[in-house]
Write a structure and sequence with these properties.
Bound molecules: adenine
Distance between the termini: 40 Å
Number of helices: 9
Strand content: 15-25%
Helix content: 25-40%
Length: 234
């Protein structure tokens, strides 16, 4: 998979993609991530990317020309990909949207800044607008890190077997079961006996019950959306 990210703060992103699972996926050639400076697509001495809003009002608006030049020059390289604008006005990211985006062979991610981006970018350049949640960031860069991480770890071969996505939260619409490691007792708090029992069937059932109970308590909205879990405890 190829991922291009366009930003006015390349260093903010570069470090985030140089560690852990993303780094390994890049090293293995599973994903090719390229970061591009939007200012390289300006044509004035000050490398201006924003301007005053028509109609007045507070704040600046990101100009359309650098965005069009940047994305069109990337598309000239072949595969047009899917252009995603990160903005609090976008569709809220969840695991099913991550899965859909992870199945694309190229994403071009646009990190908006300031109070907004000229509407023509939204209407005529991007394919989709995505928000990572109902809160406002100073810009799309932290959202790009979230999106890239979530998408890369779903690429075949990105995770080791120990990091399998099969049992993760949201993979089946439920939260994860509680996890413990040694010691069996810490400050008087004991690991549940069932996990020390060696009875794999019982452990499986206990974990499933914990998942359902935890989801019921913390995220009942997920239970409404998830598949039938009624057979899980049998
Ligand atoms: N830019 C600012 N806030 C954002 C959010 N919540 N999601 C994506 N991009 C953003």
């Amino acid at each position: 998979m190829r991922i291009d990210v366009v930003t006015i703060f390349p260093p903010l992103l570069a470090g985030a993609f140089e560690h852990s699972i993303i780094k390994r996926a890049r090293d293995r050639g599973i994903v090719d991530i390229q970061i591009h400076d939007l200012r390289d697509h300006t044509d004035d001495r000050h490398r201006t990317v924003d301007d005053y809003p028509y109609g007045g009002g507070a704040g600046m608006v990101m100009k359309p020309e650098p965005w069009f030049r940047a994305v069109e020059s990337l598309r000239d390289q072949g595969n047009p990909g899917r252009a995603i604008l990160l903005t609090p006005q976008g569709k809220r990211l969840d695991q099913s949207l991550v899965q859909r985006l992870a199945s694309e062979d190229r994403l071009i991610i646009l990190c908006g800044r300031y109070e907004g981006v000229d509407e023509r970018v939204r209407e005529h350049l991007v394919d989709e607008e995505v928000s990572i949640g109902d809160y406002v960031l100073s810009g799309g860069e932290p959202a790009a890190v979230v999106l890239v991480d979530a998408v890369v770890r779903l690429q075949p071969g990105a995770l080791g077997s120990a990091e399998s996505t099969v049992e993760e939260s949201f993979a089946d619409g439920l939260l994860e079961y509680p996890q413990y490691t040694r010691p069996p007792e810490f400050r008087g708090w004991r690991v549940p006996d069932i996990l020390l029992s060696g009875d794999h069937g019982a452990v499986e059932r206990w974990r499933r019950e914990q998942q359902i109970e935890r989801t019921r308590q913390r995220r009942p909205d997920l239970l409404d959306e998830s598949d039938d879990v009624s057979g899980a405890t049998t």
